[in-house]
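Hi all, long-time lurker, first post. I run a small reading group and we've been trying to get comfortable going from sequence to structure in the token notation. Rather than ask abstract questions, I figured I'd post a concrete chain and ask someone more experienced to write out its structure so we can walk through it together at our next meeting. Sequence below, copied exactly:
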Amino acid sequence: MNEIIEKIKEIALEEKENDNKLKADIMLIADDIKSKRLDISFETVNESVNEHTACAIDGGKFEFDLGDSYLIMAKAVSVTGKYGEVKQIPPTIIRDFRVINDYYGEDEVKKNSIILMLSLETSLLSKADSDIIFIDGPLIDPPVYDESLDEYFLVRSSIVKKKKPIGIVKRFSHRLLIKYLINQGYEFTNARESYLVTMLITELRKNVKNKESVFLGWIDWNKIFKEGKLLSDLNSLEKAYRKFNSQMYSAYFQLNAISPVVRIDVITPEGINYVKSWGIEGEKEVTILNKIADSLAKFKEEEVKSYVSLFQIIRGADLQSYLSKF
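-- Answer (accepted) --
Happy to help. Here is the structure in token form:
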């Protein structure tokens, strides 16, 4: 028991030392940003926007184990609103289904369901005609590359270049800012991107009013992947980026002091003021349109049960019996 206690103590002290070092580094980075010694800026978002239409696109998926295979379900949702008026256009919802054999394990099933969902989202993106388009997640999605995604990347890349959406990344783990800072001479080992960004913005916010919206950016993906040493955890993202074949910029945005920090992905460094204009306080979806789309994109238990029940009845060749109930 004493050995276990000593080991836990040793790990805790090591973590405390690492955390203290990171906090000291964050103060230095904040000072370099405020003093313009780094070519990344921290600014309040004050620019107003004109009347416009905006839409948010989101998707949902669900895998149901049929025993010998999986029924995968996916849907995508587009919600449109007109800024300057209390007006929301009824949402567009599309759905698709697949049966996937479980020959290669659950990971392959999940991959197929993700691609199905993203394909539906991309289809809605291609048809969107709003002035501003928000999408849930990164522009390069999935942020990994393998040969089976070639055709998908080609289609999605061409649509993203044409439509120029704004990607709102709620759960960001790819260490883009850390890679940028390493290129500038800072040393990091096990720092987590979301933690560092949140702590850094908290430090930079000390002279900013709590209700102000702020952003930290822009990070040019071309520069961070061209310069400095490669981070192994960015290998798959860089391959996907090269295959996507489009310029990319990212910034970190916080609507106010009590709202979460998110990453914003764009192909031209602009659009933060539109994110603010549709902002909803304290929500990880950031904009009210994204919040509505996220809610509609989720599969509810009753919805899943009805689809699975219908599938099993039809597969059991008892469709006439099912229809006779109505």
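A couple of things your group might point at:
The beta strands are 41-44, 52-65, 69-83, 88-101, 132-136, 166-169, 214-220, 249-254, 261-266.
The two ends are 67 Å apart (CA to CA).
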